[in-house]
Amino acid sequence: MEQRLYDLHLRAGQLSGREKTCGKKTPYASEALAQQASEAHNRWEERKHDVEPYPCAFCHQWHIGGIMPLSLLEAMVASLANPTEQQD
Ligand SMILES: [Zn+2]
Question: Taking the model in full, what pTM does it have?
Fold first, then answer.
């Protein structure tokens, strides 16, 4: 995975929160292992959608999740990184 995409996944993960990004998901020690797991899933005929590996900002391992195109990650990070001001 290229560095830019890797960084975006970490940032998007942090913004989404531990529960959604890491939570009860299976951790894989390397991208290669997560890749194998995602390929197995993507061959499964009853799957709901294809998945891909992503690095986890919380446990620093890898998980598999729905495919996130670069443009979607960028849009997510851009919108969540600049939340509208909130009054306490
Ligand atoms: Zn994790």
Answer: 0.86
